[in-house]
Amino acid sequence: MTATHHAAILPQKGSPFSVELRDTPEPGPNEVLIEVKAVALNPVDYFQRDHGLPPVPIYPAVLGSDAAGIVVKVGSEVTTAPAPGSRVIAYALSFYHKGSPDHGAFQKFVLAQSEAVIALPEALSFEQGAIFPMGVMVALTAWTTLGIPLDTKYTPQDKQAVLIWGGASSVGSFAVQSAKSLGFIVYVTASCQHHDLLKKLGADTLFDYKDENVVSQIVAAVKKDGVNLHTAHAVVPGSLQPTLDVLKETKGDVVAKVAHSPPLPADHPTLDNTEIAFNFPPMDVAARDKHLYQCFHGWLERGLQSGSVVPSPNLQVESGGLQGLNEALDKLRAGVSGTKIVVPI
């Protein structure tokens, strides 16, 4: 551990990152200090860099959330996180810490709360480890947003199905993996080139969202399979209306429930007897900490240990370290498909 370290600093809204030295912090009682070896990029990162949205409360800022690295030091009250020297996956973001730049992943040493730090299996690289945090958190929060506990275990006899619209995205790929672990029969839309991967992740039936009759294809499959489809996760922008079009034909008299991961416009489409909820974790700190623990120390850590959870989607490793983050984020903003961009640090 050094007294200072390099970080990708965002001086103000709309500026590019610049790499500068920051003081290396000491972990608080429930925190873990991690030497970052790789970070993964998410669309929210370039939205915050370019537009300051979601709001960035402190400038200069350090952004990012998805990290893998080595534990350097743990706080005095930490009981669950791996010991110093351990390889770990960490959900390290400043959003839950009032914008504190000590807590953003885009730097060489970062603080993360212990609920969101778990062991990285030896079989996985740091680049593979960095792929998990945001995708897992958003995918799992969709279920709890709809009132579905993460320990749910439907049986085939329950015939409970779910529709995931946008399965090839990072969140979508973990939505598929987690839906399978909950016991759902999993219907997924994605481009055809991603169908083989999603099948391996647990999708039961796949549809090309570009087909003009995709809605009728899904409805026909649900009726043929004799399953109950009244639950959905609209993962990508523009997916709510076709999702509702499917549910209109499949939900029967049951109240349908849709988790919506993109921001939900005030004038969004609706459907009778259907609840549409923006996918967001609890804002109460104690409830959120418990949720983080369930997502990471519960679902993800157990799944990695058993081999039932794997890195997804495909990795795209970009070089350049902290200095290369601007260019890597520009590539993400330009558009990737079925791919997560990861940068070794």
Write structural notes for this entry.
It holds the Pfam family ADH_zinc_N. GO terms for molecular function: oxidoreductase activity, acting on NAD(P)H. The protein is of the alpha/beta class. Helix content is 29%, strand content 25%. The strands form three sheets. Strands 3, 4, 5, 6, 7, 14 and 15 form a seven-stranded mixed β-sheet that branches. Strands 10-9-8-11-12-13 form a six-stranded parallel β-sheet, with helices on both faces. The two termini are 15 Å apart.
Task: Note poorly predicted spans.
Answer: none
Radius of gyration: 20 Å
- Percent in strands: 15-25%
**Biggest sheet statistics:** 7 strands, mixed
Number of strands: 15
Structural descriptors:
345 residues; alpha/beta; 7-stranded mixed β-sheet; 6-stranded parallel β-sheet; 15 strands; globular
Task: Summarize the entry for a quick read.
The protein has 345 residues and is of the alpha/beta class. The protein contains nine helices and 15 strands.
How is the topology of this model organized?
Blueprint lengths: L3 E6 L8 E6 L7 E10 L2 H9 L14 E9 L12 E5 L17 E5 L3 E3 L6 H4 L3 H13 L14 E6 L4 H13 L2 E5 L5 H7 L3 E3 L6 H12 L2 E7 L5 H11 L5 E5 L13 E5 L6 H22 L7 E4 L7 H10 L4 E6 L1
Helix pairs in contact: 3-4, 3-8, 6-7
